[in-house]
């Protein structure tokens, strides 16, 4: 199972939010210095979210993300503010390993199909952000249907993987909920990366034993609740 340290970018800084709320941001320095820190600690992939993009400025941080990709040379999965095929193509063309399609995948599901056909499924990850069994979009403000049904649809459309974010526990550092993850894995054959609540080596081991392909470490990693070395060991 892969471990993806989160590098969330807001206003040019690497930050962590609680429950996706901008006003809760805690800054931790530049994205590149944090990326290097996690790579030096053993990571071989990064989960990068362009929060300025998610909050409405699609082109924000493009230069910074380009630099991060160029300077690190590792696999990067990127989300945040991807609102069109053109946005996704632009990121893939500069070297992003795979784009995470969130709200656009719900609003325009055919984009998942088109990009998968154009670039290959491995470069296209569909985001399944869920609260109480419902997919939530538009900054987690709007419900958009059953998360399991959407996961099945994304698989049929040709997505190469899914990012499952349990919004209920995201950013709280209180642990994961295995039930929603287990139900998702029963309904799809796609690789699933899990975000939200991963706060301990026990959480990582639980996800590994469920059979997920990866886990995103965010707030718990930055606050020191879990170290990257602990997570990598638990993932083996």
Tell me about this structure.
This protein is α/β, with parallel strands linked by helices. It has one domain: Aldolase class I (TIM Barrel). 39% of the residues lie in helices and 29% in strands. The protein contains 11 helices and 12 strands. It has an 8-stranded parallel beta barrel, surrounded by 7 helices. Helix 9 links the parallel strand 11 and strand 12. It is globular, with a radius of gyration of 16 Å. Belongs to the HisA/HisF family. It is an enzyme of class 5 (isomerase).
Number of strands: 12
The Cα radius of gyration reads 16 Å
Compressed to H and E, one letter per element, the order equals EEEHEHHEHEHHEEEHEHEHEHH
CATH superfamily: Aldolase class I
SSE class: alpha/beta
What fraction, in percent, of the residue positions are helical? 25-40%
Enzyme class: isomerase
Keywords: Amino-acid biosynthesis, Cytoplasm, Histidine biosynthesis, Isomerase
Organism: Methanofollis liminatans DSM 4140
InterPro entries: Aldolase_TIM, His_biosynth, HisA/PriA, HisA_bact_arch, Isoase_HisA-like, RibuloseP-bd_barrel
Question: What key phrases describe this protein's structure?
Answer:
236 residues, alpha/beta, TIM Barrel, 12 strands, 39% helix, 1-(5-phosphoribosyl)-5-[(5-phosphoribosylamino)methylideneamino]imidazole-4-carboxamide isomerase activity, RibuloseP-bd_barrel, cytoplasm, His_biosynth, HisA/PriA
